[in-house]
Amino acid sequence: MATVRLLLKTLTHGTTSLSYPLLVRPRTQLFNSLRAFSAAALSPPSTAVVYDHQGPPDTITRIKELPPVEIKQTDVCVRMLAAPINPSDINRIEGVYPVRPPVPAVGGYEGVGEVYAIGSEVKSISPGDLVISFPPSSGTWQTYVVKEQSVWHKIDKSIPIEYAATVTVNPLTALRMLEDFVDLKSGDSIVQNGATSIVGQCIIQLARDRGIHTINVIRDRVGSDEAKQKLKKLGADEVYTESQLEVKNIKNLLVNMPEPALGLNCVGGNAASLVLKFLRQGGTMVTYGGMSKKPITVSTTSFIFKDLSLRGFWLQKCLSSDKAKECRSMIDYLLGLSREGKLIYDMELVPFNNFHSALDKALGKQGSQPKQVIKF
Ligand SMILES: NC(=O)c1ccc[n+]([C@@H]2O[C@H](COP(=O)([O-])OP(=O)(O)OC[C@H]3O[C@@H](n4cnc5c(N)ncnc54)[C@H](OP(=O)(O)O)[C@@H]3O)[C@@H](O)[C@H]2O)c1
């Protein structure tokens, strides 16, 4: 049977046994708990976004109260504060992501919370600490999460929760892609599509910090002029809509900038072809997203005469490799940048009660929207 530190006692509530820290409990409940101090340490009940089978996220997800779960000796119970809705979360619910939790499942993959209670053998984390789920794992869209201590990473309390909640999936992807494929130096340039995405916004700022120029491609849509201005403010050197790049020789657009050795593809289809066109002889395009759901087409000549390389990036693979430890340090570095205001990106914090309207926005039902981050 698990035990938790003295901060926790047990409270009987009807037929269910619940555990609450003494520090946050009303006096009457405290009295009740002292009479019933024998059961296993349990989390509070959790309000969660659940789905019973895969399908369209807006129709199959529902908010459900889940019963308390046992806090084992090496477990940490976290009261979630915020978690984003990322495209991969949507893909997991749809059933099109290669790795997904068995159903029924709770949605979400990354997020931040405050430690609520710890098992008796947990030494490095204390109640009140701010932690992110790292490596991230399924089930962050709920008010209380109980997981083994090794999947929580303690972070500085001064970091705004929306940045802590979102640092792993997208900023870490941006940083890894800048480091892992091409040896880039100050003065070099890179090209990317999907530049308005969080990954894209991070690429721009991390590259600027290293003296690397960015050529950015965005889609033609309402508000594209405003989006261009925003990206330039973040440090983008050039921003083009796809239609602006329907020119005979795309390389004529490169003024005072070397041809890029690295291209980053978030979108596929025509947007990927544009990235390939910018690349220099022997350049590499890394594909990490497929937002247009369209395939990548590569001309025969670009393989033969330009000797281009096509690579792929998947963060999940990185996190389960020998790079996992390095990724933790990278997370701390990225959070440090956000705390100093050197790594910012568009987000909208949405109360948990409004989950389904946030989901609709994340699904693109209302056109382009900032990243939706649920606040619990
Ligand atoms: N491989 C990995 O390990 C890894 C890790 C992290 C992220 N990703 C992928 O990276 C991509 C971006 O993720 P994110 O969270 O940074 O994105 P995000 O902030 O949620 O933004 C979504 C982006 O997709 C664009 N977009 C949406 N629908 C589109 C369409 N039909 N055609 C073209 N562009 C479209 C949006 O452009 P507008 O601004 O014009 O709406 C925006 O740039 C996703 O595909 C995600 O799955 C992959």
From TrEMBL:
<feature type="domain" description="Enoyl reductase (ER)">
    <location>
        <begin position="55"/>
        <end position="374"/>
    </location>
</feature>
<dbReference type="InterPro" id="IPR020843">
    <property type="entry name" value="ER"/>
</dbReference>
<keyword id="KW-0809">Transit peptide</keyword>
<keyword id="KW-0444">Lipid biosynthesis</keyword>
<dbReference type="Pfam" id="PF00107">
    <property type="entry name" value="ADH_zinc_N"/>
</dbReference>
<keyword id="KW-0276">Fatty acid metabolism</keyword>
<dbReference type="GO" id="GO:0141148">
    <property type="term" value="F:enoyl-[acyl-carrier-protein] reductase (NADPH) activity"/>
</dbReference>
<dbReference type="InterPro" id="IPR013149">
    <property type="entry name" value="ADH-like_C"/>
</dbReference>
<protein>
    <recommendedName>
        <fullName>Enoyl-[acyl-carrier-protein] reductase, mitochondrial</fullName>
        <ecNumber>1.3.1.104</ecNumber>
    </recommendedName>
</protein>
<keyword id="KW-0496">Mitochondrion</keyword>
<keyword id="KW-0275">Fatty acid biosynthesis</keyword>
<keyword id="KW-0443">Lipid metabolism</keyword>
<keyword id="KW-0560">Oxidoreductase</keyword>
<dbReference type="InterPro" id="IPR013154">
    <property type="entry name" value="ADH-like_N"/>
</dbReference>
<keyword id="KW-0521">NADP</keyword>
<dbReference type="Pfam" id="PF08240">
    <property type="entry name" value="ADH_N"/>
</dbReference>
<comment type="similarity">
    <text>Belongs to the zinc-containing alcohol dehydrogenase family. Quinone oxidoreductase subfamily.</text>
</comment>
<dbReference type="InterPro" id="IPR036291">
    <property type="entry name" value="NAD(P)-bd_dom_sf"/>
</dbReference>
<dbReference type="GO" id="GO:0006633">
    <property type="term" value="P:fatty acid biosynthetic process"/>
</dbReference>
<dbReference type="InterPro" id="IPR011032">
    <property type="entry name" value="GroES-like_sf"/>
</dbReference>
<dbReference type="InterPro" id="IPR051034">
    <property type="entry name" value="Mito_Enoyl-ACP_Reductase"/>
</dbReference>
<dbReference type="GO" id="GO:0005739">
    <property type="term" value="C:mitochondrion"/>
</dbReference>
